[in-house]
Structure formats: structure tokens, C-alpha cells
Amino acid sequence: MTPSTTEFAPASGPLKGLKVLELGQLIAGPFAAKTLSDFGADVIKIEPPRTGDPLRQWRLLKDGTSVWWQVQSRNKRSLVLDLKEPAAQAIVSQLASQADVLIENFRPGAMEGWGLGPEALLALNPKLIMLRISGYGQSGPYRDKPGFGVVAETMSGLRHLTAEPGRVPVRVGVSIGDTLASLHGVIGIMMALHERQTSGQGQVIDVALYEAVFNCMESLLPEYSEFGVIRQAAGSALPGIAPSNAYRCADGGYALIAGNGDSIFKRLMACMGREDLGQDPALADNAGRVRRITEIDEAIGQWTAQLSVADVLQALDAAAVPAGRIYNVADIAADPHYLARGMLQNVRMSDGTDLMVPGIVPKLSRTPGNHRRNAPTLGQDTDDVLHELGLSDAQIQALKDKGIVA
User: Fold this and answer.
1) CA–CA separation, 318 vs 302, rounded Å?
2) What are the residue numbers of the active site?
3) Does residue 150 sit in helix, strand or coil?
4) What kind and span of H or E run contains 346?
5) What is the DSSP letter of 163?
6) For 356-395, how does the pLDDT look when each residue is reduced to its tens digit (9 = 90+)?
7) Per-domain boundaries in the chain
């Protein structure tokens, strides 16, 4: 069973009518704008001449353009402007005066250098909500340092934990720092829009990449503050939560088993034929299990080593014990649950072929998001956007002749 091809629909969703101006490039800012555009916002993406957003050329290309681009920039419109030119800056100011939200992820100070900082734009449009994503935030001693998501992951403490004990820390295989910052930015935008309904005023949202990751680091800091504990890498285990680990099976694969609820642990042990552990009063709560986690992990590992991953998961499903196998993308693309939830969508490309892309998250029951249009070609909407600002064909052509727009 394969996903059906998405039929493009007119603008709809809970954010229909919201006007968003996207500046910046690559991941953090554009992912935030993509999330808004999925739910109906009209996103105008401003790109530099000739090259456009560098993401257009990242990773694997189809007809010269990254297939990633089809995910990151769906539902957006592309306007090409050379932001170093005063005439282009004036166009951005005019667009910002009509926008609800502006998103940028340049290094701090870049927008101010173009005369497009918050002071200038909020004077033009007091209702404007401005999301600013940067490596270290708009203040502090590291403000002016360049910062990518990978650096945020190291500074937040995440990279310190993502390793097998005693081995080199590894990175998460995706740009998790950028994405977490984006989602925090979207949350900030939603809160600011809600507050604006009362005050009538816009505001600036300052998201630092490292802070977004740090916000997800759970008990890391209070444990250090209270107990002086510096949490260390623990591989596939979840320290202090027992049992929760990856266990090797007879066919060489791994089963991820989370038996860390009190009643779940008893069901897991019964499934394994280890009622002696399941009924042991000393293991009835998490604290007791943590003290004997080596014994428990060895018992589970001995059991899984006799069975295939599929047999382990079948037994644990029957026992209502949370477990799963490690998916690669081929597993995802063939999974019936992904398909049933609309998380695998085919979109029709300009050459008539279909491309599978992720569906839209989250799921809203009454006003769901949708895929209204494919990611734009570079400058595809320049003329339309400038016409909406009131520029004539002759004025637009004059700007093109000067290389200010394209």
C-alpha cells in the first residue's frame, strides 16, 4: 500500500490570513516558517539573487534542487531581493509594515545593519511579531559569535551525553538544535499572537539555539546543583530509569524495551518467565530497580538473545510492554501506521513524477494543515508579491535591471 498523491488545496487552516515574512536561510528560521505555512499562513520567503537559500543545494538533488527543499519550503512564496541594496531594504520595510510576523535567523546585528532591526520595524508596524533565532541570542558575551545547531548541541550538554561510556560523543543524525529552536520560536509566536489580541502590540521573540536544546535537558542542572552529579554518557540506557535499554536479539538486531513502569516491569518479567524478579519486593519500584539494573539488564539480554527481534516484539506486544525495533527510512516508508496517520504523502513534481514527503504535524481535528503548493522555484513569486505592494510592471522591471530583485 502506497500513499496517495496530495491534491493541492486552497489556503486553509487555523492560520489562514496570517502574513509572515521569512528572512534568513537553511534550517532554524525557515523550519519555523514552514510550520506556520503548513497551517495556512501566507509565508513570503526572501532569498538572495542567483543562489537563493543554500538549502536548495544541500544533500541529494533532483533536477538541480535538493529534495529537502520540497519539505522545508512547501506552501511558501519566493521573493528574490538583494538585501544589501537600499531599494530592497525599503521593500522589506513595506512588507513588514503589512505583516503579522517576521522571522529571521541572521547573526545578531545583521538586520540592524540593513536598517531592519526591531526598533525600525516596530515603529512602522507596532503589531509586528519578530522572531529572531541565533546561536547565542541577542544579548550576552557570546552574542556576536557565529553559532550553528551543532555548536548549540555541544554547549547545551546534549553532545556530552550522546555516546557509549568512554567513547567519543556522537552527534544526533539530524539538525536537532536548529529544529528545537524553530519549535520554540513557533511557540513564542503563538503566545505573542494570543497576547496581541489583548494589548494590540507586537514584540520581539529572542530564541538562542543552545537555550532551546538546554530547555530539553530534563534533570541535568538540578541534579548537579543539589548533588554535584555530572551526568555522564550511558549509551542506549536511560540512567536512573530502569529498565530502559536496547537489547541484542538472536538475529543480530536490537529490541528497545521500556519496562520502567512498576506494573509494566512485572508484566515484562512474567513474559520472560522471570517471576522471581517480577515479584521481588525490592524491585517493586524504580529506585529498587535502579540499584540492581545490571542484574535486570543481564536477565533481559539473556532472554532476547534467544529470540529474533520480531519474536521479542510479538511477545512484548501481547504482554502490553512498550517496545520497538530501530527503524531506518525504508522501514518508515513501508510502515502501515505512518501511512494510516497521513505521515507519508506523495506530491506531484513539475516533471510529473511523485516525491514522498513527511506529512503535517500536529493533527488538528477541525482545522488541519495541508500541502497547498510545492516549494517555489527561485524568485517564482517576485512579480506577484511586488504587484501586491502596488508596484507596476515598469517599476519591477527597473528593479530587475539593477539586480535589486529577480
Assistant:
1) 20
2) 178
3) helix
4) strand 344-348
5) S
6) 999 999 999 999 999 999 999 999 999 999 999 999 999 9
7) 19-216+333-401, 244-248+254-325
Provide the phi-psi class of 218: left if phi over 0, else alpha when psi is between -120 and 50, else beta: left
Task: Return d(Cα 29, Cα 105) in angstroms, integer.
Answer: 5
C-alpha grid cell for residue 13? 487552516
The residues, ordered by sequence, that sit 6+ positions from 301 with a Cβ below 8 Å of its Cβ are: 247, 248
3-state secondary structure 354-369: EEEEECCCCCCCCCCC
- For residue 147, the model assigns a pLDDT of 86
Q: Residue 293: CB partners within 8 Å, gap ≥ 6?
A: 237, 242, 243
Q: Is the CB of residue 61 less than 8 Å from the CB of residue 95?
A: no
Q: Which fold has domain 244-248+254-325?
A: formyl-coa transferase, domain 3 (3.30.1540)
**Which CATH architecture group holds 19-216+333-401?**
3-Layer(aba) Sandwich (3.40)
In terms of C-beta density within 10 A (0-12 exposed, 13-18 middle, 19 or more buried), how is residue 373 classed? middle
Enumerate long-range contacts of 301-304, CB under 8 Å, 24 or more apart: 301/247, 301/248, 303/272, 303/273, 303/274, 304/247, 304/248, 304/249, 304/250, 304/255, 304/257
Q: Are 265 and 283 in contact (CB under 8 A)?
A: yes
Dist CA 80 CA 278 (whole Å):
64
- N-term to C-term CA, the chain: 43
Phi, psi of 201 (to 5 degrees): -115, 145
What are the two backbone dihedrals, phi and then psi, of residue 84, each rounded to the nearest 5 degrees?
A: -75, -15
Q: Omega of the bond prior to 362 within 30 degrees of 0, cis?
A: yes
For residue 186, give the nearest of 131, 104, 148 by alpha carbon.
131
Q: How far apart are CA 46 and CA 24, in angstroms?
A: 8
Q: DSSP label at 3? A: P
The answer for residues whose C-beta is within 8 angstroms of residue 139's C-beta and 6 or more apart is 206
pTM: 0.93
Reported as a single tens digit per residue, the pLDDT across 305-332 is 999 999 999 999 999 999 999 999 999 9
pLDDT of residue 1: 60
Check whether the bond before 243 is cis (ω within 30° of 0). yes
d(CA 169, CA 158): 9
What is the model's pLDDT at position 166? 87
Question: DSSP labels for 368-385?
Answer: -----SPPPPTTTTHHHH
For the chain, the residue count is 406
Distance CA 52, CA 284 (A): 59
- Find the mean pLDDT for residues 257-269: 96
DSSP codes joined into one string, 279-301: T-GGGSSHHHHHHTHHHHHHHHH
